[in-house]
Amino acid sequence: MSDVRERAGLGRDVGADHGDVIRAIEPAVKDNVDLLMPLDKTWQPSDYLPDLEAGDWREQVEHFRTTAETISDDLLVVLVGDMVTEEALPSYSMSLNGLVRDEEGTSPAPWSQWLRGWTAEENRHGDLLNAYLRLTGRVNMRAVERTVHPSSPTASTRRPMAIPTASSSTPRSRSVPRGFRTATPGGSQPGKATGTSAGSAG
Ligand SMILES: [Fe+2]
Questions:
Q1: Of the spans 26-40, 51-65, 115-129, 164-178, which averages the highest pLDDT?
Q2: How much is the pTM?
Q3: Ligand 1 centroid to 196 CA: how many Å?
Q4: Domains along the chain?
Q5: End-to-end CA distance of the chain, in Å?
Q6: Cα(87) to centroid of ligand 1, in Å?
Q7: 140 CA from centroid of ligand 1 (Å)
Q8: pLDDT in tens, 110-142
Q9: How far apart are CA 168 and CA 41, in angstroms?
Q10: E strand or H helix at 61, and its extent?
């Protein structure tokens, strides 16, 4: 530990807490903050989704959903987990702003600039995952939303993370995680949130 602290210029008499590390590497952050992509050049979630303003939006959505039918239930579970994680971004952002002592989120300091860029990037991840999963018609988004916003502190432990709706003709050869429902020919309407609980999903 002492070697690490000395290399970071902290000295032996300084406690190595998070603040020490943050301050020690701030010069490196300053040198690299220009790596953040300018707003007019960065990608946006819409770049990867059907264009619902286009004249052929129906064909685009149909192609999108046909492609999405090839996604396994296992991968859907992962994507839902990713989305829920991304959508916790306000918590991460608040705690990180506290770490760099930028309570207002407006500081011009290198760390603050970097964190704002990182937050914007992560927000796009969450937006894209949410829109993508919703458009597949294979995830019960209302069940996901209930999990993200439980009505009581203990409610989230009883509620399903997500329930794909029946829309895919893709054979399911593996068991489906608890909280998910396998695609059933002639089953519930694709893309329609049913609010079915994990208990009834099996
Ligand atoms: Fe992300």
A1: 51-65
A2: 0.67
A3: 28
A4: 1-25 (no CATH), 36-201 (1.10.620.20)
A5: 50
A6: 9
A7: 22
A8: 999 999 999 999 999 999 999 999 999 999 999
A9: 36
A10: helix 57-68
